[in-house]
Amino acid sequence: MSLPNTSAAATVAADYYDSADADHFYAEVWGGEDIHIGLYDNPTEAIATASRRTVSALLELAGPVPAGGCVVDLGSGYGGASRLLAATYGVQVQAINISAVENQRHRQLNVEAGLADRITVHDASFESVPLADGCADLIWSQDAILHSGHRARVLEEVARLLKPGGIFVLTDPMAADGVAMDLLQPILDRIHLPDLASPQRYLQWAEAVGLVREVWQDKTPMLVRHYDRVRQELRHRHDDLVGRISAGYLSRMDAGLGHWVEGGEAGRLSWGLMRFVKADGGEARA
After folding, report:
1. Which of residues 246 and 6 earns the better pLDDT score?
2. CA-CA 20 to 30 A from 72: which of 25, 90, 142, 243?
3. How confident is the model at residue 284, as a pLDDT?
């Protein structure tokens, strides 16, 4: 998919997630509805269970959405969080995602859940969101913004979309603060990116557009555990998966997961939950 005002990195991500191999792998192995990093109670816990726990933790961090409010989900994937938000609060969710293949599955799952009237799925980039200024009470993003080639622009879009006092919550795989990017080269080569964000860079981008960081919960050990857990599942199910996913893709995925595990164990990576508020012109919500 090629969208206007979209970075080359984001377009590469769209092409990757639109592939049949990626679609099957993320739907069947990575977590199903929730294709992001999980919060694990133990090293062998089901990926889907841990991934849903992250959604629940971020939901708690975000706090309630006002009745009749609007949530924008940036990089919505298969829509697990969008459906939970719509079902929990009865709000309208605007789901922004660049992968047409993921969006097709997302819309079908919304229909099956009886939530198609509450969730609008946009074939769009979070670098250029087709929504009006000040429309959102809550903006939500899980492990997606790393794929942007212009992350500062994404934060500009967040600030534009949020109402005064609105909340932005996110998770994102990042470099640890102060880590040189050449130390992450195997990871960057795998995901076709020149760099990663860091907690400090997110803070700087946010402050530049009038967002105040209220919470940073460092959960980096979960990044290591998650990528290791996905790699375990890939290896355990390899012979079955190779009937639907190419052997070359599985081999490259195995190697890529290993780079994330190694980078995390070496202290070069960071991951956790963040909450920001748009404080200018309004008070933060409790």
Report:
1. 246
2. 25
3. 39
